[in-house]
Structure formats: structure tokens, C-alpha cells
Amino acid sequence: MEAVKLALEVKSLCIGYGDHVVLQDLSFTVPARSIFAIMGASGCGKSTLLHALIGLLRPSAGAVLFRDQDYWSLDDAGRGRIGRRFGVLFQQSALWSTLTAAQNVALPLQLFTRLDATAIDALVELKLSLVGLTEGRTVLPAELSGGMAKRVGLARAIALDPDILFLDEPSAGLDPVASERLDQLILQLRNGFGVTIVMVSHELPSLYAICDDGIFLDAASHTAIAHGAPRQLRDGCTEPTVSAFMHRTDPVHAGA
Fold this sequence. Notes:
The chain is an alpha/beta fold and about 260 residues long. It has a domain at about 1-85 and about 195-255: Rossmann fold. It contains ten helices and ten strands. β4 and β5 (about 70) form a beta hairpin. The relative contact order is 0.16.
């Protein structure tokens, strides 16, 4: 049997602030071309973990491996090389407010490639069209709807053709129609371009619709207490905290 190709491996990860432990002894793998969910209730460390994975927060112990390279054991140049293989969509899109939609998408191409202005403009057009934005290139972020801002943020995240795309609460604040459209776009990016996607989310419809693997973080134990696809955890996990989250019920009665 052919071994599963891994895009990311986390080993015995510990993260904290001073004496405060956020996550401890956390280990998991992310298969290549999967849509991997980081789940859990508020305060469990989802965003903290994401920050450690994308290079914004150094863990106190453990390893984060990309293609068998331990990200946090490398020097700045080595981490920079790996980091350019990431795309990130932040929860509030994090668009530059004084730049137009097209200029936001162009920025990573200007910073990290030697392409001329004509080539960059063509790539910006392509990336915006991939996320369904064929108009509004000159619109500023303040003039965009929530769904459009997410799409521009996603176009910027895929500007450099990343191997791994990290999404922080991509559906947060979107209406059901916009959220479903974004789900379909995420699926298209995975299926059409082979991108591995790691997604922090508490939106159950999105988790069930598109994610095929994941972990569930627990605030009490500061680690993962369940692994698997959200649908599998919903239908088969008897851990009360996980069942309560997956069914939005009282954890006292979820295991009854």
C-alpha cells in the first residue's frame, strides 16, 4: 500500500505565554491535498495553533515539519523560503485599506517575484477571476461586501501558487449564500490545483460540507481530544465535549 503523502506534520507541540499553557503535547499530520479542519470551542487555542503553523508565534517545544524540514529550527532565511509556499486568509481578510483590490493581490507578486508590471497585471487578473471577481479591480476594501473582501483576500493568498493554504474562520460574518459560495471555491482550489488547505472554523455547515480530516482541540486538557473528518466526529465520537460541539448541545447531556 502506498504511504499517504503528508503536507504537514506536528510533533509534541507546546505553546504558551509565560506560565500560561495554551497547547501541550499536540501531535497530528495533515495529508497532502486534504481540507483539514482545526476545530474546538472558543478559547481552545485554534488561532494560536494557526499562528504557530504560519510562523507568527514560536512554540515553546515541539516541531512543525514541512517536507521533513522543521520550520522553527531553521534560520530566518530558511523560514522565509518555506513561508513563501504558504498562502494565508486571515479572519478579517486583512486587506490594505489604501490599496485597491487589484493592488492588494499584486503586492506579494511585487515583493517576492521578479515579474514585470505586465506579467503581474495578468496574474492579478487570473487570480481575481479564479475567485469569481471579474469586476471591481479598482475598488477599495471599504467599498467591498464581506463576501467580496473574503474573495479578494483569497485571491491574494493564492497569488504565489502556495502548496498550503491556511484559512482563519473563512466563513465568519458571511450570510449562508456567501458562505456556501466560499465553500465551493475552497473545494475548487483543492480539486483543481491540488492545494492542501488547513482551516480554522466553528461553522458546522462548512466543516461538514468540505473538510475531510481534522482535529478537535480541548481547552481543559490543552490538546487534541479527537481526530477525524468533521462528519465522522459528528456521527461517531462519544466524547461529550466533541459531541456537544458537533451537535450544538449541552455537554452534560451530549453523551447520554
